[in-house]
Amino acid sequence: NYLRSRMIALVSPNTNSSSFLLTGFSGLEQQYPWISVPFSTIYAVVLLGNCLVLYVIWTEPSLHQPMFYFLAMLAVTDLCMGLSTVNTVLGILLGLIQEISLDFCITQSYFIHGLSFMESSVLLTMAFDRYIAICNPLRYSSILTNSRIIKIGLTILGRSFFFITPPIIRLKYFHYCHPHILSHSFCLHQDLLRLACSDIRFNSYYALMLVICTLLLDAVLILFSYVLILKSVLSIASQEERHKSFQTCISHICAVLVFYIPIISLTMVHRFGKHLSPVVHVLMGNIYILFPPLMNPIIYSIKIHQIRSRMLRLFSLKIC
């Protein structure tokens, strides 16, 4: 009875409740115990995989190089993305929670969007790293010094979380008169805007500008860096050297695709998929959140020889 009354209160217009109902896989509630198994496995792989990458980089002195420092930044970002959503996604599937408070919702959206911008920034930095390594190898170590890498890391952190603060803070002071039902099993900025009856023009325009100046700009710069890399590689006479140069970029290209394809797909579903089942929207939202953190440690463990050999050595020691 309490749960029923809470749901009625949350879906009623002009409600003053500060709680929001999370959306799972509508119509599949009876299958939640089964659906929770693959999701729990995915989260376990996300957490263990990224922790393992960080452990290998931390404990192997030969990996204390700029390329692997940037990879560690990517692993930390993916790890935090998993931690920021695990409680609500698994909480719904395991029947532990159905709703969250406004403060928790705002905090979660802050970290989700901040970490998305951070992942984009790290991928751009990794593209810059590959550009220097291939196009200007003699100056690589003098350009990417440890102090400069620390400054780059702090810049990424500031760029990712500082500029999203104004619109996120404003969410706290909006009046939410529409039914308090979120469209995902986690909280997003655009979801709260959809439920608000206040003037949201600043948040809408600011968010659009932020996406253009971060995600879109980063994608353009990454593409431009690979045009320069391709031009440099094609000028190399030796076919073996060309192949070696391309091999160092494959893992990064895969990571870029793994990040941007779910974002583009989710945007297309939101923009043109109004007629689609809510389950599709929820599934695409979870792919956007979980696919990059799941795939990145797998990609880098397979494609980068130093990481792969160190992991195999680590597991062989455990087995012995």
Structure write-up:
The structure is a single chain. It is built from 12 helices and 2 strands. With 320 residues, the chain is mainly alpha-helical. It has a two-stranded antiparallel sheet with strand order 1-2. The radius of gyration is 22 Å and the shape is globular. The N and C termini lie far apart (56 Å).
Which features does this protein show?
320 residues; mainly alpha; two-stranded antiparallel ribbon; 76% helix; disordered N terminus
Provide the spatial order of strands within the biggest beta sheet. Answer: 1-2
Cα separation of the termini:
56 Å
Largest sheet: 2 strands, antiparallel
Helical proportion, percent range: over 70%
Tell me what portion of residues adopts beta-strand conformation: under 5%
Radius of gyration: 22 Å
Please work out how many helical segments DSSP would assign: 12
N-to-C SSE series?
HEHHEHHHHHHHHH
Coarse morphology: globular
User: Structural class, judged by helices and strands?
Assistant: mainly alpha
* Mean pLDDT across all amino acids: 87
**How many beta-strand segments?**
2
- Unreliable spans are 1-9
Subcellular location: Cell membrane; Membrane
GO molecular function, one term: G protein-coupled receptor activity
InterPro entries: GPCR_Rhodpsn, GPCR_Rhodpsn_7TM, Olfact_rcpt, OR51/52/56-like
Domain G-protein coupled receptors family 1 profile: 49-300
